[in-house]
Specification:
By secondary structure, the protein is of the alpha+beta class. The radius of gyration is 49 Å and the shape is rod-shaped. The chain has ten helices and 14 strands. It is 50% helix and 18% strand. Among the domains are: 90 residues, 2-Layer Sandwich (Beta-Lactamase), CATH 3.30.450; 91 residues, Helix Hairpins (Orthogonal Bundle); 147 residues, Heat Shock Protein 90. β13 and β14 form a beta hairpin.
Length: 476
């Protein structure tokens, strides 16, 4: 019977990749956000440090201006010349390519230094700061009016080693690059750590996904981490409850079927005797003295047979679905001999409908329960004979196959639409418009038995291009 509980993978099931991706994404966000905040804070401190150094550099340039003005002297001919003070000379020599200077008189003539620093004379005596672009670098320039031997002059000193210009490079090498390396290492560590930490949970997920819908045994929690054990305990409690409910339903069906078999057998015997008497007293086409017409007696006999068959099928289904079956050892079953015996048992039924019941078998053996496999094959052959039109063909096959052993029943009847092939394996389901009488249990019983043997029914189009071929593959 169907419990409505499927533990295997389903369209809405959570996959291994989904679990890993979700946790990894959360952990990465939780780790990277503080790291990024730390990088921004560090960059701000670096910027402040660069600003402080820049201020100190400006003060140093300003302190060197009087030395530059005092360095302007006259030679023997009275022409201006520079005699650099030691501190100024040391500053200029240490930064030969990143420093420049100029001394400009009141008329705008450059008395010494670089001509590109010549500018308009300053009106005030306060120093003037500004930045100029030149040679692909930014120069920090300070100008101030100074008194010298040549009168008032404008002294300019420029430095291209401004710390603010090196801030971007310092940010990249000292702040951003280390933090990027840390973030990459954290991402790799999270990737590996989550995969390793969730390995027990993923194994538990795989165990549950691989389970058959009928397997409600408890999950071992010894190898599970402590955090997962409450989940395993909850699953085991659920399995016990569902198993107890299913076991009660199976016992009810089994008991009901057992109780019905005896009265149904007696009723069928009475109806069969009544039908035979009716045929003797009132042959077809002749008058009769029976209380009921022969046609109604035949209908009663058919209904009694169907009811008896339903009780037998319910009992077979209950036995096939019982947990005790899986505990019993499987013995080798000769499929070739099984097919031959079923052929003999079904010859009369096939002959009454003028159906060619054939056999195409090769030696093959599979571990299993012989009486269950006999019930499976009997249901498949009975269905094929019942629904194949008069004069049709039914073939039983078995033999070795790639990866194992196969067993199949092939007919050239009306077949089953592809959209209905999964549903016909459900209990009490019949395709609409199906001719003939049935309960919708034959294929359900066969599918249940196939599951017990680690296989399942594969419904395909018949080998002749029409009809239905039902195939089982038993893996070796």
């Amino acid at each position: 019977m169907s419990l409505g509980l499927r533990l295997g993978a389903a369209p809405g099931a959570i996959s291994r990749g989904t679990i890993l991706f979700g946790l990894r994404r959360r952990l990465l966000v939780m780790l990277i956000a503080p790291l990024l905040a730390l990088a921004v804070l560090n960059a701000w401190f670096e910027y402040r440090s660069a600003g402080s150094v820049d201020t100190l550099q400006d003060q140093r340039l300003l302190s060197l201006l009087p030395l530059l003005a005092d360095s302007l002297v006259t030679d023997e001919s009275g022409a201006p010349m520079l005699l650099l003070a030691p501190a100024l000379e040391q500053f200029l020599n240490a930064r030969q390519h990143t420093t420049a200077y100029a001394i400009v008189d009141a008329d705008g003539h450059v008395l010494a230094g670089h001509a590109w620093l010549a500018g308009m004379p300053l009106v005030a005596s306060e120093p003037e700061w500004h930045s100029e672009e030149g040679g692909g670098v930014t120069w920090r320039v300070v100008r101030q009016r100074q008194k010298t031997l040549f009168g008032d002059v404008v002294v300019a000193l420029a430095d291209a080693s401004d710390p603010r210009q090196q801030w971007a490079r310092a940010m990249l090498l000292k702040v951003l690059l280390p933090h990027l390396i840390i973030i990459a290492a954290a991402a790799m560590a999270v990737h590996l750590a989550v995969g390793r930490a969730l390995r027990p949970l993923l194994r538990l997920t795989e165990v549950v996904e691989r389970r058959s819908p009928q397997d409600l045994s408890a999950i071992e929690d010894e190898s599970s981490p402590e955090e997962v054990r409450p989940l395993v305990a909850a699953l085991n409690r659920l399995f016990r409850l569902v198993n107890d409910q299913a076991e009660g339903q199976r016992r009810f069906i089994s008991d009901a079927a057992h109780q019905l078999r005896t009265p149904l057998a007696a009723l069928q015997a009475q109806v069969e005797a009544w039908a035979q008497a009716a045929r003797r007293i009132a042959p077809p086409g002749g008058p009769g003295t029976m209380l009921l017409p022969v046609e109604q007696i035949e209908k009663l006999r058919g209904a009694t047979r169907r009811t008896t068959q339903l009780a037998n099928q319910l009992l077979a289904l209950s036995r096939a679905d019982a947990r005790s079956i899986r505990a019993q050892p499987m013995l080798p079953v000769d499929l070739k001999a099984l097919c031959e015996s079923l052929l003999e048992a079904q010859l009369d039924a096939a002959g009454r409908r003028n159906i060619d019941l054939g056999l195409d078998v090769q030696p093959a053996s599979v571990p299993g329960h012989e009486w269950l496999l006999r019930e499976l094959l009997a249901n498949l052959v009975d269905n094929a004979i019942k629904y194949t039109p008069v004069g049709g063909t039914v073939t039983i096959r078995c033999g070795p196959a790639a990866g194992g052993v196969f067993l199949e029943v092939d007919d050239d009847g009306p077949g089953v639409p592809e959209t209905e092939r999964e549903r016909v394996l459900e209990r009490f389901y019949r395709v609409r418009g199906t001719q003939g009488e049935g309960t919708g249990l034959g294929l359900a019983i066969a599918e249940e038995i196939a599951r017990v043997h680690g296989s399942h029914l594969e419904l395909q189009a018949g080998s002749s291009g029409r009809g239905l071929r039902i195939r089982l593959l038993f893996r070796g």
